[in-house]
Here is the input.
Amino acid sequence: MSLLITGGTGYIGSHTVVELQALTDEQDIVIVDNLSNSSTKVLDRLIQITGKKVTFVKADICDYEAMNAIFEQHKIDAVIHFAGYKAVGESSEKPLSYYYNNVSGTVMLLKVMAEHKVKKLVFSSSATVYGDNESPLNESMATSATNPYGQTKLMIEHILFDLAKSDSNWSIACLRYFNPIGAHSSGLIGENPNGVPNNLLPYVSQVAVGRLAQLQVFGDDYDTADGTGVRDYIHVVDLAKGHVKALQNLGKISGCKAINLGTGNGTSVLEIVNTFKEISGQNIPYKIVPRRAGDLATVFADASLAYELLNWQATRDLHTMIADTWRWQSQNPQGF
Ligand code: NAD
Ligand code: UFG
Here is the structure.
């Protein structure tokens, strides 16, 4: 039996592969990735961490022939689907590229899965589908999106719900991630954004390591304790373990189920900066600038459904998240 991991050399995919490898020797892992936002160096690091090999196929999920060949060559039992583009700002500049890669790519993957009667799927969705609902965000709230990236996640969720309705053999977990940060405790794998980071943690850690001069804090006039934005940061290893639990519990899920993966706690930008400074011992210069368009004041999860359905909850605290981020960044100042 094999498990197919799309986007498995990326940030969350690689950490999930580590957790899956720890689980069993009986299941082979096949990674498919086009390396548009990752490197084959990840594969060597995975072997260093786990001592086990994975099968890697460099291919695009939009390529029917290549995807079909993977299903012909391996007895795939289930798929965890991470592959996609994820930069909110870029998605407004290149909407077609986002709709094609994320939505068409997923439709292509589902078509090949259906043809090979593989109907177990774990999908990377995002808390962005909650639009401007008030936190804590729960899975029964209405969904909406404000940018093309968010629209792709929402469209894919609709496609998955429709698909599961049309054929009761599908079991699908749509995992809505909050803000993944941190890295594997070995410091061998971690987040490695191309160019200037859009997200807070990679930005702060690149300032701490001296690659960037100064953080811009987007607004200190929000209705939060210190005026800066509050988010639900979750350790990427906890998130990875959530995928393992989702996979193990797919049998209990009939149809398609949306499930939050968050901690249920909120942390402000300044709390992140101060904790990072304390743990790294580095100065982190910052300046307050106007709010970033589209940002909300406070976003955090109601994480109770994941506990009820999957017996999963996040266990790593902010200190561990930041210590692990710093270990990865200081050991790999330029990334992979
Ligand atoms: P990532 O960019 O590190 O990983 C995605 C991987 O997919 C990359 O290795 C990339 O090369 C690959 N890929 C992209 N398009 C592909 C294609 N057409 N064919 C094959 N491979 C392709 O991103 P990540 O942070 O690991 O995110 C994984 C998933 O989780 C994405 O779908 C993302 O939208 C979702 N997500 C991420 C976050 C976050 O903050 N990191 C939050 C919510 C949801
Ligand atoms: N922030 C700064 N300066 C920066 C970057 C971010 O002050 O340089 C602030 C933001 O204003 C926000 C917080 O840090 O208050 C977190 O911002 P991120 O960009 O790290 O994360 P977001 O919550 O904006 O977005 C993330 C993912 C999206 C996903 C969303 C879902 O990047 O893909 O969570 O909740 F859609």
The radius of gyration is 19 Å.
